[in-house]
Design a protein that fits this description.
Blueprint: E1 2-9, H1 12-27, E2 34-36, E3 43-52, H2 57-69, E4 74-76, E5 80-84, E6 90-96, H3 101-114, E7 131-141, E8 156-158, E9 160-169, E10 172-182
Antiparallel strand pairs: 1-3, 1-9, 2-7, 4-8, 5-6, 6-7, 9-10
Amino acid sequence: MKRLFFALPIPKDAVRKIEKYIAPFKADPLFSTAKWVTPENYHLTLLFLGEIGDNLIPEVRQLARAVFNQMTPFQLVLNKVLLFPPVENAHMVWLRGPQNLSFEEAKSQLNRFLFPCLADKEKDTDEPIPHLTLCRLKDPVAKKAITFPPLLLDRLEINECHLYESTLTPSGPVYTLVEEYKFCS
């Protein structure tokens, strides 16, 4: 069994801008107990599969190739840093963008093609809003305690998706690349 998910990579120039933006927050006492995601683990989760039997992984990979071979590159905006969930005592900081039809379609196609072969799994029905988790908060922060200034990133060019295995460890998740899928041009 492997814990798998599909994710869109974050371009290196965007990673540098994000790191520069969050540096002051890492030093802020409000975030003293936060577990910050390392830059090499930045990604936009497209579809979380969960625990998948080793015997099904080749079929998942083959079906994903078929989906992504038909997908065209698209642009995506990430423009808002916020506490999540959007209620008192949030426990994460997200960088998110507005709804994106191409992102929604990619998730929908994966759901449609993959879940018939994953009979014991339920489709991922989470609202398909692009977001990057920046940190997890051990001590929840009251949402009125902090506001985030705008983060100005260029539009992200999305032309590939990655399949990762996620191994949970006491020091945090370890992501291992299983396969890269280039979109058609």
